[in-house]
Amino acid sequence: MTHDILLAGAGLANGLIALALRQARPDLHVTIIDRAAGPSDAHTWSCHDTDLSPEWLDRLRPLQRGRWSGQDVRFPRHARRLSTGYGSLDGAALMGAVADAGVRILWDSPIAALDIDGATLESGRRIDAQAVLDGRGAEPSPHLVVGYQKFVGVEIRTDAPHGIDRPVIMDATVTQQDGYRFIYLLPFAPDRILIEDTRYSDGGDLDDEALARASHDYARQQGWAGTELRRERGILPIAMAHDAEAFWEERLTTPPPVGLRAGFFHPVTGYSLPYAAQVADIVAGLQGPITTATLRGPIRDFALARARQDRFLRLLNRMLFRGCAPDRRYTLLQRFYRLPQPLIERFYAGQMTMADKLRIVTGKPPIPLGTAFRCLPERPLLQENA
Ligand SMILES: Cc1cc2nc3c(=O)[nH]c(=O)nc-3n(C[C@H](O)[C@H](O)[C@H](O)COP(=O)(O)OP(=O)(O)OC[C@H]3O[C@@H](n4cnc5c(N)ncnc54)[C@H](O)[C@@H]3O)c2cc1C
């Protein structure tokens, strides 16, 4: 039997593609394959409301386990409340919706080999399809130079109300350590809160226990006693240089990648939900037959356009990682959060205008000019990485 669409990996990118496809093309049979036993509870996928189109906000709203009408940031010399809405969904809700939409999900099915006509599972079973997309998570590439956002989050049930009524996107008043350090808070209920100790560091190593302890220490300092319910960990790529042309040149004969595997993430945050929604719209919006070949062009076009648009964000990362002493990195973010709210929203949505970019880099330079100039070219980092 040949399936219409085969999506390798039951993650965020393919979950959104499946939802959008089933709505736009209910005639197509969509199959997702994943090596895991079922949806993971080790993820909370969040984003700002302004990162998503109104259609995606409506689609995801019923799935969200947390929704807030504002957010806070805290820095040593600046604190701010923004009215930008924020929401979170988890793997179980997303995959539940995907299954309800009529998508076939094969769990416990590690893929040994993927090609443009289908997948061969480790069990030896072969699954053929007209169209194949590869959403099996990040893989290193010489054409994408990254730093890391690393975090361990503990979700606790507090013995008494914790008193936080909206997300704290960054509490950078904590001791700076291992690069730019902040605490991220998501209050899911008056007595349930996710506390995530996050570091923007050069190396990809993560001491889970140390960061989990740091999150618990933070809870204690706030006076929150309670029980740990769940943990999540991440080592997210932060893009510093990207040669998208070369990246896609190497993928002319493979199933098109999507999600982190394609480098579709916000260069500064490592978050991929907004870009995943945009790619899902492209896939679901295709007219005529959907095959691996008809998918490749539009996804690659999106990638190249995105990489061009994100050039400035990668420059900011180079300034953050290469132009700033690790314990001073927070000053760049502190300065950024003094800018107007619509600019901040466009920054997270990856939709900055030329005026926004100028606004970010003008004024008193956050790092010495000579250092800033050294950060300008992208090519040397790609050459170092080759
Ligand atoms: C803990 C955590 C929290 C995050 N929070 C956010 C957030 O709040 N907002 C946001 O936008 N981003 C967030 N991210 C970053 C990023 O958006 C996520 O990593 C997102 O899940 C990436 O989506 P993806 O579809 O590319 O990959 P994934 O969602 O990781 O999906 C990849 C899937 O492929 C499967 N797979 C891999 N290899 C095989 C194989 N050989 N055979 C079969 N299946 C395979 C895996 O089991 C997995 O289910 C977070 C990341 C982590 C780790």
Outline the fold blueprint.
Layout: E1 2-8, H1 12-24, E2 30-33, E3 44-48, H2 54-60, E4 66-68, E5 71-75, E6 78-82, E7 86-90, H3 91-100, E8 104-106, E9 111-115, E10 118-121, E11 126-134, E12 144-158, E13 168-171, E14 180-189, E15 192-201, H4 208-221, E16 226-242, H5 244-249, H6 273-285, H7 292-309, H8 311-322, H9 329-336, H10 341-349, H11 354-361, H12 369-375, H13 379-385
Parallel strand pairs: 1-2, 1-11, 2-8, 5-13
Antiparallel strand pairs: 3-7, 4-7, 5-6, 9-10, 10-11, 12-15, 12-16, 13-14, 14-15
The protein binds flavin-adenine dinucleotide.
Flavin-adenine dinucleotide binds next to helix 1, strand 3 and strand 16.
Please, could you describe this protein's structure?
With 386 residues, this protein is of the alpha+beta class. It folds into three domains: 2-66 and 87-139 and 244-309, FAD/NAD(P)-binding domain; 144-239, Alpha-Beta Plaits (2-Layer Sandwich); 311-385, no CATH class. The protein has 13 helices and 16 strands. The strands form three sheets. The protein has a seven-stranded mixed beta sheet. A six-stranded mixed beta sheet has the order 8-2-1-11-10-9. It has a three-stranded antiparallel beta sheet with strand order 3-7-4. The protein is globular. The site of flavin-adenine dinucleotide has 32 residues, from helix 1, strand 3 and strand 16. Flavin-adenine dinucleotide (FAD) binds at residues 9-14, 33-36, 42-47, 110-111, 135-137, 232-234, 236, 259-261, 270-273. This is Lycopene cyclase. InterPro entries: CrtY, FAD/NAD-bd_sf, Lycopene_cyclase_b/e. Belongs to the lycopene cyclase family. One of its GO terms (biological process) is carotenoid biosynthetic process. One of its GO terms (molecular function) is oxidoreductase activity, acting on paired donors, with incorporation or reduction of molecular oxygen.
